[in-house]
């Protein structure tokens, strides 16, 4: 597999997943509405609320992430080598210079955030900057800038909103069904049974879809980053060091784990398919293997 085919393959698979996700959400809204006997009116109100939520998330999610991690913006004189590498990779990628941040954390990791290339942020932990050589750091920065260039951050924001919408909708349905005093039977009994099953299982399924999209975007960013540096071994070597390091993270949380180049809480190799479904990232050994085949 070459770099170009890896990028093309992951793009196609990601959009298939996104299409299925939209179909899933539409079906869920329809079943809940029919079960409650409200037609599509209830679903319309819920979608309006979700729309306002998505707008707020679109503009302020990056600020929330930076505040949560305690990241600090730096200038060139603070970390000159790191800053220079970001500058060089931006020139190679044809991207505007993002804001550069550092998190004081001995656990090596990095992430990017921001709604588009003009509002992007690249952030690395002090542990990462101390551990990697220049070629490896270039690979990591190229990976994060690829997330920016491929609009992965925006895509994952949309997916996160869909997952949140499904969870809220399921919760509202369960509350309306089991805690209301309605005696009339406006809903169809078959739809009611289906709706209860969907309300219980859909948040789990939605989360699995979110994690699947996240894993696909990591493969795509690996391939795009390797294309940017023309040196896949740099990123492969960096991931190898991250795989061996077991330093506990100080500031990472489950809410932000999907943003990092490596899941900060994953200190064990995935042993089977089932546990792999619940990972935000593909196994590091698999990513390293693919990079070294390019």
Question: What can you see in these coordinates?
Answer:
Strand 3 and strand 4 form a beta hairpin. By secondary structure, the protein is mainly α. A 4-stranded mixed sheet has the order 1-2-4-3, sandwiched between helices. It contains 10 helices and 4 strands, in the order H-H-E-H-E-E-E-H-H-H-H-H-H-H. The radius of gyration is 21 Å and the shape is elongated. It has one domain.
Q: What do the pLDDT scores average to?
A: 80
Largest sheet: 4 strands, mixed
**If strands are numbered along the chain, what order do they take across the biggest sheet?**
1-2-4-3
- As a percent range, the share of helical residues equals 55-70%
In total, the number of domains comes to 1
Tell me the series of helices and strands, N- to C-terminal: HHEHEEEHHHHHHH
The total of beta strands comes to 4
* Radius of gyration over all CA atoms, rounded: 21 Å
- The coarse overall form would be elongated
């Amino acid at each position: 597999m070459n770099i170009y085919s890896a990028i093309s393959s992951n793009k196609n698979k990601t959009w298939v997943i996104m299409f299925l996700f939209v179909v899933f959400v539409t079906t869920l809204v329809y079943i809940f509405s029919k079960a409650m006997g409200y037609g599509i009116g209830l679903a319309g109100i819920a979608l309006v609320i979700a729309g306002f939520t998505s707008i707020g998330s679109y503009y302020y999610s990056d600020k929330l992430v930076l505040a949560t991690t305690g990241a600090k913006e730096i200038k060139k004189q603070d970390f000159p080598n790191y800053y220079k590498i970001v500058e060089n990779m931006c020139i190679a990628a044809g991207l505007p210079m993002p804001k550069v941040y550092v998190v004081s954390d001995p656990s090596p990791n990095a992430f990017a955030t921001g709604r588009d290339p003009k509002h992007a942020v690249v952030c690395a932990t002090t542990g990462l900057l101390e551990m990697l050589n220049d070629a490896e750091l270039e690979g990591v920065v190229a990976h994060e800038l690829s997330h920016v260039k491929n609009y992965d951050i925006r895509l994952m924001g949309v997916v996160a909103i869909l997952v949140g919408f499904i969870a809220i909708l399921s919760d509202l349905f369960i509350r309306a069904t089991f805690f209301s005093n309605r005696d009339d039977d406006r809903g169809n009994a078959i739809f009611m049974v289906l709706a209860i099953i969907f309300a219980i299982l859909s948040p789990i399924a939605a989360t699995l879809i979110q994690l699947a999209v996240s894993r696909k975007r990591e493969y795509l960013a690996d391939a795009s980053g390797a294309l940017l540096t023309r040196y896949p071994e740099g990123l492969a070597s960096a991931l190898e060091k991250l795989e061996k390091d077991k330093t506990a993270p100080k500031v990472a949380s489950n809410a932000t784990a999907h943003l990092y180049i490596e899941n900060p809480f994953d200190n064990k190799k995935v042993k089977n398919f089932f546990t792999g479904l619940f990972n935000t990232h593909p196994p590091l050994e698999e990513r390293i293997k693919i990079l070294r085949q390019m």
